[in-house]
Amino acid sequence: MNSLRLTKDQIEHAFGTETFRRGEEYFHNGRVLEAIKFRAIVYGEVLGTSRYKTKVDLVNGVSSECSCPVGYDCKHGVALALYYLKGHCADGDKALQEINAAGKFELLKALEKLIEDDPMLLPKVANALRIEQEGEGKRQHDPKLIALVEKRVKSMLRMLERGEEYAGGFVQSFADLVKSNQNYMSKDLIFFALEFLVKNSEDYGYFYDDYSDSTFGEAVFESLCDALVRKPINEGDFRRLVDLKKNDEYDMLETFMARIAIPENAKALSKLPSAQKGVKELLAEYDEALYVEFLINSGGIDEARIIIRDTKIAGLNEEERFDLYLKIDEKEALEFARERRYYHCLADHYHGKGDYKEVVDIFRTVIQNRGGTPQRWLNDGCGLSILLRKIFDSLRRNRPSDYGDLARGLFRVSYRLSEYALCVEVGIALNEPKLLYTVLEGKNSHLLDPESRIKLLEHLSKSDPERAVKELKSLTDKLIEEKKDYSYDQAVKCTLIVKRLIKEDEWRTYLRSLSEAHYRKINLWKSLKRKGIPQPDR
User: Fold this and answer.
1) Which terminus of the chain is more solvent-facing, meaning fewer CB atoms within 10 Å of its CB: N or C?
2) 311 lies in the same domain as 349
3) CB-based contacts of 61: which residues, under 8 Å, 6+ apart?
4) pLDDT tens across 44-66, in order?
């Protein structure tokens, strides 16, 4: 993807609607602290629970990596991508041109000033300089430095095991240690670290954050993978990895395995005679899609194409086949998807490109011509809720002549698949109370979330205010009884709508009854007071 043509729709398509919404909020709240674009990557710091180092790849499908617990394609990545889109980033390429144009004396003075400000830069600069001077494949490693690195690696691992080092702080420190000293780490030391982390995962808590229900150890395994693939790996090493994966009860190596398939590592491994067979044994058994991605990135396009098209291979679902085919050739992938009737994949793809007419045409094919039943292609594996919303968004943007019929078809599909919040939005957009009553009075109406129910009742209040008031009062009581701040906020919304719909004397009576029933709900009355509704005196 050309970074210069990046759009909000492409960012939303890459990260998903919910992550995009949260990231957009972060962006508007000024949480991107600093950012610089260098070549095809944007680097920055985004303020979340902590200051997170985030980078966004503008070429390979708009993806991000982050030091937050989620690790990749998170809201911090969205915020940084939007920051770049608005043209706020510093220009790293221009800065590099200025550095290249500077004289040796100016460069040395600037480097000296940087080191004075941060002395920890000194060993990194010295290591980088040593690598440049020695040249690739001609490095004479210092035995003392090799022994020092090994001692530091093993010391950090043992401190982690004993709980002497906080796992969150360990991750970045250890990853930086490995990245800075790849050339001084033997294969045996790398395997020692991998085996140690797998074997002792229970002792250090699996790099798992219970609060956010996510893992945060990705940087450790990525750095170890990058270090290993640059060694002369043989068949015995791959067998060692296969055995290690079999003993990996908690999937600690998931990130390591995925890292093997990235372009840089795949190309490095493809140069080794033993790699193709070893990688296939390692990845194909673990994740067929990962193996195909490795083939694509290492130049094995023909074999990748054969696997994608082979329906006998059960390890690939429809979305994986289509996404992998896109990495080979977009035109071929689209023809393949139409041939196989992967309409959900096509709709998702065209929405991401902003081709809303194509999305509408695909949905029309499915609804009118039965090109694929909704139960088949609108399933949980396809990102059901997001996909249906993208179809609705395309209908509103494209506004075809049969908009009403297609929107009602979308309502029927959404209702049958229990996507009641979207049903409310479609019913309101069509201004058809009959559809809204279908949701309100259905046997599963209790599954409708409070926010959508409030939207529904507010719209119905225009044609049936008496019914709306009754339902809103009942909903208010239920929300208050949940005794949560979010529920109180929703209850306040209900109360404000009721106030607009009833007469003044009836309002005063209702407010007094509300106060008597929920007199001690202090947070509720604080929220109401902020909206200009004080609690009546007892």
Assistant:
1) C
2) no
3) 1, 14
4) 999 987 788 899 988 767 888 88
CA 503/CA 115 separation, integer angstroms:
72
For 48, the 3-state DSSP assignment is coil
* Residue 67 Cα to chain centre, angstroms: 13
Of 328, 361, 389, the one marking the end of a domain is 328
Residue 406 lies in a domain: yes
Q: How far is CA 441 from CA 324, 434, 471, 498, in A?
A: 44, 10, 11, 20
Asked if 70 and 214 count as a contact pair (C-beta separation under 8 A), the reply is: yes
Task: Tell me how far the alpha carbon of residue 178 is from its chain's centroid.
Answer: 26
- H, E, C per residue of 145-171: HHHHHHHHHHHHHHHHHHCCCCHHHHH
Q: Are residues 191 and 267 in the same domain?
A: yes
Q: Minimum mean pLDDT among 57-66, 255-264, 326-335, 494-503: which range?
A: 57-66
- Among the listed residues 436, 481, 484, 476, the one whose alpha carbon sits nearest the alpha carbon of residue 460: 436
CB atoms within 10 A of CB 210: 7
What are the CA-CA distances from residue 399 to residues 40, 157, 292 (Å)? 36, 60, 39
pLDDT tens-digit profile of 14-43? 888 888 988 999 999 889 999 999 888 899
**Nearest-angstrom CA–CA distance, 513 and 511:** 5
pTM, rounded to two decimals: 0.69
C-alpha to C-alpha distance for 475 and 446, rounded to whole angstroms: 11
C-alpha to C-alpha distance for 369 and 365, rounded to whole angstroms: 5
Classify strands 90-91 and 32-38 as parallel, antiparallel or unpaired: parallel
For residues 185 and 178, give the distance between their C-alpha atoms in angstroms, rounded to a whole number: 8
Within 13 Å, how many C-alpha atoms sit on residue 40's CB side? 12
On whether the CB atoms of residues 106 and 92 are closer than 8 A, the answer is no
Structural domain includes residue 421: yes
Q: Which DSSP category does 72 fall into?
A: B
Mark whether 298 and 194 lie in a shared domain.
yes
Residue 140 lies in a domain: no
Domain match, 239 and 346 both: no
360 shares its domain with 245: no
Contact predicate 461/454, CB 8 Å:
no
Strands (E), 39-91: 41-47, 51-57, 63-66, 90-91
Whether 443 is in a domain gets the answer no
User: Is there a single domain that holds both residue 173 and residue 321?
Assistant: yes
* Domain with 18 in it: 3-88
Tally the domains of the chain.
4
SS3 category, 38: strand
Q: Which of 88, 108, 130 is the last residue of a domain?
A: 88
CB 524 within 8 A of CB 518: yes
321 and 346 share one domain: no
Query: What's the alpha-carbon Rg for the chain, to the nearest Å?
Result: 29
Give yes or no for residue 374 having a pLDDT over 60.
no
Structure-derived torsion over alpha carbons of residues 451, 454, 459, 464, reported in degrees to the nearest 10? 160
Amino acid present at 342: Y
